[in-house]
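#structure-requests
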Amino acid sequence: MSPKKIANDLIIFAQFSSTPSFIGCAEILGITKASVSRSVAKLEEYYGVSLLVRSPRGVKFTNAGTLVSKYAQQLLESIEELDSKLDEFKVSTKGHLNVAAPAAIATLKLSPLLHTFSQENPEIDIELDMAEQTLNPVTDPYDFVLSWFPPQDHNVYVKPLTSYDVVIVTSPMYLVGKGMPKHPKELVNLNCLHYKYYSGKKQWKFLINGENKAFSTGGRFTVATSTLLKEPLKSGQGIARLPKFIVQDELDSGELVQLFESYEIEKAKLYAVYANKREDDPVVTKLLNFVVDKIGVINA
């Protein structure tokens, strides 16, 4: 007989041990006295020893019965502990998450994903904000942040998620009378439209011989949200450096063209950020795992 076939009998015997009474055990478990007696008999047959000594004065455990009782109790306690742990998990996955991400990520990537996440997890409420600046979930009112620029703080957990191609683009209209620039050193004479939170916004970097080399740029127009550069670009007001997914449709339609295609630009890395103290929070963990599964993950 397989040990699995006596698991239920051991649970009954564990309950019997705490009584010990056939009638009392049966009442607690909601079964018949005969069922309790059959479980004891099955265990005695399986182990080949007597577990109980029956007398007019009641029932006593044999030495073997005491040993089986001990392990049966441990089995029952393990099952009860598992039930408790699972109950805690089910309760803890209910909650509210304040989430923030840069506008382009929030609009084009994260918002559709969070809609799906909400449908799959109806007991988790999510509030999504758009924020370009560096946010710290320890000091700012957010539970989960996606960011281009994670905070340098040992109290937060930063997980690299994915990376996006970066391109320099403009409208064909802007190039009329100027021609196509051929080298990044020409940027200083062009009207460059800047993203405020890009590190070194007045200098754009290119990977040359495996190293980032910075080139000065011209231009006096700066925005705090990268997606706000699209309309000035399309109307021929200048050139901009952006993650490619933001302007992919315009590149495909020909409204915008890519510059310096022969030069390599370091990709824009996206990070997930949350407070260290939330690392074991099932709600945060569930969202993180969902985002990693849908967006991807890169090596740190």
